[in-house]
């Protein structure tokens, strides 16, 4: 009888230990432990912080980027939210998509802005303009 009690006690202890290990693996504490072991890796820190964000926080940041007329940042945030398993409202995603004409206008304006600030050395000007 004592042997049966000892075996059942060991089996119950092993079951509780296994359950605790599985629960710990899916908890936020395991993510913190992985972060502590990868403290030197900036990607691990970013992954830990991004995985803790909620859908509402992603939606707020996308709306903030749209309010600042930063379409590229809003598109990046939508992609990040999708990568981390969040589903943003379709209306918000539609606002981040720009049409072909708007994209071309943005590219041309950026090119013109960059061209006005470029200093071309005299040797290069001599090669192309004479």
Attribute tags:
mainly alpha; 130 residues; 8 helices; 0% strand; 79% helix; single chain; elongated
Helix content: over 70%
Tally of helical runs: 8
Tertiary shape: elongated
Q: What Rg, in angstroms, do the CA atoms define?
A: 27 Å
Strand tally is 0
Order of helices and strands: HHHHHHHH
Query: What ranges have pLDDT less than 50 throughout 5 or more consecutive residues?
Result: none
- The structural class is mainly alpha
Distance between the termini: 104 Å
Biggest beta sheet summary: none
The residue-averaged pLDDT reads 79
Strand percentage lies at: under 5%
Task: Provide the fold topology.
Blueprint: H1 2-25, H2 28-37, H3 42-51, H4 55-67, H5 71-83, H6 90-96, H7 100-117, H8 122-129
Describe the structure.
There is one protein chain. The chain is mainly α and 130 residues long. Helices cover 79% and strands 0% of the residues. It contains 8 helices and no strands. Helix 4 runs antiparallel to helix 5. The chain starts with a helix and ends with a helix. The mean pLDDT is 79.
Quick summary:
The protein is an all-alpha fold.
